[in-house]
Amino acid sequence: MSEVKCLVCRGKYFRRGYYEVETNVDIYSEVYHNIKKDLSYQDETINGDIDIYTDIHYDTVANSKLDLRLHHQDKKSSGYNELCNLYKYICEGCGYVMNFAVEKNVESKKEERNRLIHEKSLDWRGFDK
């Protein structure tokens, strides 16, 4: 049984979820050289100045994609990053996402169905003897 209700539709079934960010950064660089020469020749001697100017230009392109991921209903794998301290729950009725700093006890419709099947399958006869 869930200990919270959806703020929008008052639903009580939630799935656990997490955000995943994928970021791609491409850096393009170009180098330009400008050489200026002022030379004079006398006999076997070369006199003059050579100035070399170098310009470096960077062009950066960044793309990010933010995805909300839900935990798979059939697998017990954790998708949470250990550093994450926000718990996200997505209402199964309306899709509203709620964030909490403390983990809440919630269950999805499938989890509730499995829990009820398990509770009904227990044989309590002869337990008090």
A few lines on this structure:
The protein has 129 residues and is mainly β.
Description:
The protein is mainly beta and 129 residues long. The protein has one domain. Helices cover 10% and strands 50% of the residues. The radius of gyration is 33 Å and the shape is rod-shaped.
* N→C terminal distance: 30 Å
Largest sheet: 4 strands, antiparallel
Strand percentage lies at over 45%
Provide the structure class. mainly beta
| Overall 3D shape | rod-shaped
**Strand/helix succession:** EEEEH
Low-confidence parts: 79-84
The number of E-state strands comes to: 4
Question: How large is the radius of gyration?
Answer: 33 Å
Please indicate the count of domains. Answer: 1
Average pLDDT reading: 79
Cross-sheet strand order for the largest sheet: 2-1-3-4
Number of helices: 1
Helix content: 10-25%
Protein traits:
129 residues, mainly beta, four-stranded antiparallel beta sheet, 1 helix
SSE layout and pairing:
Layout lengths: L13 E29 L2 E26 L16 E5 L5 E4 L8 H13 L8
Antiparallel strand pairs: 1-2, 1-3, 3-4
